[in-house]
TrEMBL record:
PANTHER family linked: BRANCHED-CHAIN-AMINO-ACID AMINOTRANSFERASE, SUBGROUP IIII AMINOTRANSFERASE
UniProt catalytic activity: L-isoleucine + 2-oxoglutarate = (S)-3-methyl-2-oxopentanoate + L-glutamate; L-valine + 2-oxoglutarate = 3-methyl-2-oxobutanoate + L-glutamate; L-leucine + 2-oxoglutarate = 4-methyl-2-oxopentanoate + L-glutamate
Pfam families given in the database record: Aminotran_4
NCBIfam families reported in the protein's UniProt record: ilvE_II, PRK13357.1
Native organism taxonomy: Bacteria, Bacillati, Actinomycetota, Actinomycetes, Propionibacteriales
CDD domains the UniProt entry points to: BCAT_beta_family
UniProt keyword Protein biosynthesis, yes or no: no
Biochemical pathway: Amino-acid biosynthesis; L-valine biosynthesis; L-valine from pyruvate: step 4/4; Amino-acid biosynthesis; L-leucine biosynthesis; L-leucine from 3-methyl-2-oxobutanoate: step 4/4; Amino-acid biosynthesis; L-isoleucine biosynthesis; L-isoleucine from 2-oxobutanoate: step 4/4
UniProt keywords, alphabetically: Amino-acid biosynthesis, Aminotransferase, Branched-chain amino acid biosynthesis, Pyridoxal phosphate, Transferase
GO MF terms held by the record: transaminase activity
Superkingdom of the source species: Bacteria
Name of the protein in its database record: Branched-chain-amino-acid aminotransferase
Similarity section: Belongs to the class-IV pyridoxal-phosphate-dependent aminotransferase family.
């Protein structure tokens, strides 16, 4: 469909002085823009009622299906202000396509790629003053599209009333004072997803199930948790919120194959950038033994992780019950790929891949 979007301006937008204070130190997920986007779906009417409206609390029936059966999906993306004042998003059609895949897996209706992109664009255009200045180091406007079962019904079936929304929050640089290596805890008790499960869908249940393992990691003094496969408990899958890469001494790179892990958009972009830089990239099963043996033998020269928030970060150490392993290398491959990607996103380098989408 082609959306007709109604806009109701906020009667009490944040004043400029207060906004400037927030943008000076936004943190992550702490502050939200003046407006939000909303559209609803029913079997009879399809998607309808598209609007940008003042940001505020939702009114949900206690029987709303999402509260009982977790039928919801979401996306994470950013808007970047370039030096000329224009505002861009990064590969939004890929976020839209992934949300459609997630929606199918959760038995939710699909929003078309065009309508997803227009919904995000509409909110950013209305709240463009919330996009941080380009001169500010890696600050951006984080965008959170999400869809949930809003029908008030306790029967176990796909919801007949669904709501799709977009909210936005200014975000500071993930690493204050420069990129820092992350420490990882290998959980041997918890798994994130199994074959036929929801691992490849971006849905809250996956993150909820990871929290106890993340809590375990933090209790061990680590930043993130590493999950192994649910079948054999041998193969590296992903971190709680990032994908992994292993750089070998001969220059080729291995990253765990998808299927039970999230198909990260930053992950896919890094694969393309690495290929252009001359690295052969393999997507395949990668065992924890290969990790440990490769570091011990010197075959693995560098390890790094990537995700929307951190972009790319080197891995500093892997810890597990009874042992630990320092990561090799100086992080030079990760640093180069990170800089190339960030420069494209902020308009400081040519977008040879056609990844950037202009909003304003």
């Amino acid at each position: 469909m082609t959306m007709q979007i109604e806009t109701t301006a906020s009667a009490a937008p944040l004043d400029d002085a207060a906004l400037a204070e927030i943008l000076a130190n936004p943190g992550f997920g702490n502050h939200f823009t003046d407006h939000m986007f909303r559209i609803e779906w029913t079997p009879d009417a399809g998607w309808h009622g598209a609007r940008v409206e003042p940001y505020g609390p939702l009114s949900l029936d206690p029987a709303a299906a999402v509260l009982h059966y977790a039928q919801e999906v979401f996306e994470g993306m950013k808007a970047y202000r370039h030096a000329d004042g224009s505002i861009w998003s990064f590969r939004p059609e890929e976020n839209a396509a992934r949300m459609a895949r997630s929606s199918r897996r959760l038995a939710l209706p699909e929003l078309s790629v065009a309508d997803f992109v227009e919904a995000v664009d509409a909110l950013v255009r209305v709240d463009q003053r919330w996009v941080p200045d380009a001169s500010e180091s890696e600050k951006s406007l984080y965008l959170r599209p999400f869809m949930f079962a809003s029908e008030a019904f306790l029967g176990v079936r796909p919801a007949q009333h669904v709501t799709f929304m977009v909210i936005a929050s200014p975000a500071g640089a993930y690493f204050k004072g420069g990129v820092k290596p992350v420490s990882l805890w290998l959980t041997e008790e918890y798994t994130r997803a199994g074959r036929g499960g929801m691992g490849a869908a971006k849905t809250g249940g996956n993150y909820a199930s990871s929290l106890i393992a993340q809590q375990e990691a933090m209790g061990q003094g680590c930043d993130q948790v590493v999950f192994l496969d649910a079948t054999e408990g041998r193969y590296v899958e992903e971190l709680g919120g990032m994908n992994l890469y292993f750089v070998y001494r001969d220059g080729h790179i291995v990253t765990p194959e998808t299927g039970t892990i999230l198909e990260g958009i930053t992950r896919a972009s890094i694969i393309e950038l690495a290929g252009k830089a001359g690295h052969r990239v393999e997507e395949r099963r990668f065992s924890i033994e290969e990790w440990k043996d490769g570091v011990a033998s010197g075959d693995i020269a560098e390890i790094f992780a990537c995700g929307t928030a951190a972009v790319v970060t080197p891995v500093g150490e892997l810890k597990w019950d009874g042992g630990s392993l320092a990561s090799p290398g100086d992080g030079s491959v990760a640093a180069l790929l990170r800089q190339q990607l960030v420069d494209i996103q902020f308009g400081r380098a040519e977008d040879a891949f056609g990844w950037m989408h202009r909003i304003v």
